[in-house]
Each structure stands twice: as structure tokens, then as C-alpha cells.
Amino acid sequence: MKLYGFGSNASGQLGIGHNEDTSVPQLCHPVADEEWPSSIRTIKAGGNHTLVLLESGQLYISGSIPGGKTGMGLESDLISHFHEVPHSMFGRSKVKLCSASWEASVIVTDDNDIYTFGVGLKGELGSGNEGSHPQNKLERFGPLGEQIIDLSSGMAHTLVIFSNGDVYGWGNGRKGQLGQPAEILSEPRAAQTFPIS
Questions:
Q1: 185 touches 168 (CB < 8 A)
Q2: What are the φ and ψ backbone dihedral angles of 5, each rounded to 5 degrees?
């Protein structure tokens, strides 16, 4: 499978080997390889970084990763090829879901654990901590025995949905993105849901 990228690339977020903007699609690939080790499950774009999740549960990242380089053994906050994120960052579990906010990444493992890394000045990390952090494992929340089936991040907030339909969120909810009351949440909170007819 081949992956191509084009557009803004000042932080190397396209994973094409340099950090120049391009209007012509260019091949994206992992460092030292021409092919991805398995099929691509999903691609998530943050403000200046990109996540590629493979069907095998391997996660790759490219671009600006402030606060995240430490756990990945990288020498720079800016990487212009996709690098595999070590499973050791997630307790050796496989990644089943991922999302990207402007400067943070959210990972859900097949054990239903949630990890965040990056910058969280408005609660984006969901751990109660602000600033730049290489890795946070969130305390379990939500309904007991239910699996996280999806998640999505906006510029500075994240929502997760459980198999029973419950929705939880954290981050910048000042405009109501996380339900009411509209406020910044540094830890997950159940979102008020309403039926749509």
C-alpha cells in the first residue's frame, strides 16, 4: 500500500523526508523502509503532526512532537519521516484507536487503556496535568466492562464513545464542545447526550 501527502509541511508532518510545503502529492513512508509493514487502518492529522495506525496495531508518527520524543528515543522534536512509536510506551499493548489534536496525541490500546502525549495547555492530555508531557496513562473512567469503540479530537478537545453509547470528553470545551457546562476540562467527564429524532 502506498501513502501520498501534500500541503503544509513546515514541521515535516507529511512524512515525505523534508519540511518544505508541497502542492504535488509525494510518497510518504516509514524511515528506512519503502513499504508499510501492514495495511493502513487510519490516518489522523493534528496541527503539525500526523499519526498512521496500521492494521497490525503499530503506530507511526511524523512532524512536530513536543513532549513526545523522549519516550520514542528520538533526538529531535521535528521528524520528517514516519517513525514507529515503541509499544513500550503503551505497556506493550497494540494500539486500536488514535486521534490527534493540535499538539497532542491520544491512543487507545486493545486493553482499553488510554495514553496521551504532547502539549496540553487547555486540558488536551486528560490527565489533570498541563504543559508538555512525554506520556500519560489516564485513570480508567466510564462504564465498567464497556469497550471504547471510537474517539475523535478537535483542535484542543477529545471525545471517546463506549460500546454502550456513553460519551466522555476532556480538553477545551469553552464553546460547548464537551457539553454543559461549557468549560475547560483537564480530566474526562461524561458528556450530556440527547436523542436525535
A1: no
A2: -140, 150
Element of type H or E holding 72: helix 69-72
Cα 173 from chain centroid (whole Å): 18
The answer to whether the CB of 134 falls within 8 A of the CB of 155 is: no
Q: Is the peptide bond before 86 cis (omega within 30 degrees of 0)?
A: no
* Distance (Å, whole) CA 146 – CA 40: 26
Question: What separation in angstroms does the CA of 126 have from each of 75, 153, 170, 175, 189?
Answer: 26, 12, 6, 18, 10
Q: Report pLDDT digits (tens) over 84-136.
A: 988 888 887 899 999 999 999 999 999 999 999 888 899 999 998 777 777 88
Low-confidence winner among 42-56, 63-77, 82-96, 107-121 (lowest mean pLDDT): 63-77
Q: What is the pTM of this model?
A: 0.91
Nearest of 98, 121, 95 to residue 51 by alpha carbon: 98
Where do the DSSP E strands lie in 55-129?
59-64, 78-84, 95-100, 104-109, 114-120
